[in-house]
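=== RUN LOG ===
request id: a7f3
mode: sequence -> structure
chains: 1
length: 217
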Amino acid sequence: MKNYFVRILTMVTGQAFFALGIVMTIRANIGYAPWDVFHVGLTNVTGLSLGVVSILVGTVIVIIVTILGEKFGLGTICNIILIGVFLDIIFPHIPIANNRINGTIMLIAGLFIISLGSYLYIKSAFGAGPRDSLMVALTRRTKLPVGLCRGVLELFVTTIGWFLGGMVGFGTVIFVISIGFCIQLTFKVFRFDVKAVKHETLRDTYAAIIRYRQRKS
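=== RESULT ===
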């Protein structure tokens, strides 16, 4: 269980960094990431906070991917709840960039913080986030390449978010082009092989806890 405690702490820390990175890319004020265009658009329409919208969207996505036959883990559930909570805690404390140069610097810093959060979160091996699970589910169902499914999905949510008032701009392009490089560089620095990670489903976690309790008794 000590190992589980370390993994959970790693997962929560990763989600906190992920939320911080998201807030920084939004506060950069030069265009949001695709999913954040959608989330901010929904906040404009509903009046709900960014964190609450993130939680609601994540919940709907998990329901969809479950119907499509995808399994999820403890990390998926924590991703939905904790990132939303962290977003609302962090958001008021990050200032808005006052020009494009500062905004670009803030956005790039946010990308690397998101990458660090991704490293810690994936390393914990408690399951993929809901949006990644949706991408995988669409890939399995359509038999199309994963890159194409991700691109179509992000174009779809970006378009809807833009119509709802989410900001699409220079920063959106930077995010789409650069996020893969930032993640790859971060993983290389930490010598992290993402292919070696075997994610644990919710059923696996439950079974491990039961086995631990049986050994203790």
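=== NOTES ===
Residues 2-216 form one domain.
DSSP finds nine helices and no strands in the chain.
=== END ===
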